[in-house]
TrEMBL record:
The keyword Mitochondrion does not apply. This is Tetratricopeptide repeat protein. Pfam families: TPR_14. It comes from Sphingomonas xanthus. Signal peptide: none annotated. The keyword Aminoacyl-tRNA synthetase does not apply. Keywords: TPR repeat. Transmembrane segments: none annotated. The lineage of its organism: Bacteria, Pseudomonadati, Pseudomonadota, Alphaproteobacteria, Sphingomonadales. TPR repeats lie at residues 79-112.
Length: 212
């Protein structure tokens, strides 16, 4: 359990670095330092010892982009192979290559909403803002998967990163409005709302609908 927690913390730290728009050598060195620390803990730590848990005083920040996508779309399918490759390229600062990779896959599979969603993220990351092309990709993803929260969430994330937190809040509240209370992805969007507005999203009564 201790090793799992360390791995999750490392992933969370890398997610924060990504949200801070760190790329290239800086991100690579940070990842290497985290890997070194995890290896040291694995060799010398005592994960079997009982801990002394304390009550949490603050909610955790939103996940990394890739983790958020997995929460909303699942993983281990055809599209996810290409999306993971694009993530790897972007993490090394090769955002243009990530855009080109997903653009080619969208041409081959024009009805795959996950590829359009990934393309929107890649375009926004490359432009460092919500470009018209990124917006069109998010809108196309929404057309292909009506009612699915992914496009609203990532469009909102791009709006927030572009300096439009009010529009991000509107989109995220729209995504939550028709969602069942036990949807597995609700905490992701609720945490995003806490981050940009400081106020929690209202949670409706638990329904019997499926959460994913």
């Amino acid at each position: 359990m201790g090793l799992l927690i360390i791995a999750l913390l490392a992933a969370f730290c890398l997610g924060l670095l990504w949200l801070a728009r760190l790329r290239g050598p800086v991100l690579t060195l940070s990842a290497a330092a985290l890997a070194f620390g995890c290896a040291g803990y694995a060799l010398q730590g005592s994960p079997g010892l009982a801990g002394s848990p304390r009550a949490s005083t603050a909610r955790q920040s939103p996940m990394s982009l890739a983790t958020a996508r997995h929460t909303l779309t699942g993983q281990f399918d055809y599209a996810d192979i290409w999306l993971n490759m694009a993530d790897a390229l972007a993490s090394r600062g090769n955002t243009a290559d990530a855009v080109n990779l997903l653009s080619k896959q969208v041409e081959r599979h024009p009805n795959d909403y996950k590829l359009w969603l990934g393309l929107g993220n890649a375009l926004a990351d490359h432009a460092r803002t919500l470009s018209p092309a990124a917006r069109l990709a998010f809108e196309r993803s929404a057309e292909l998967a009506p009612g699915y929260p992914g496009p609203l969430f990532f469009l909102g994330l791009a709006e927030a990163r572009s300096g439009n937190p009010a529009e991000a809040e509107r989109l995220w509240r729209e995504a939550l409005a028709g969602a069942p209370a036990d949807a597995s992805w609700r905490p992701l969007i609720e945490d995003g709302l806490l981050m940009i507005s400081g106020g929690p999203a209202q949670r409706p009564p638990v329904s019997n609908q499926a959460g994913s």
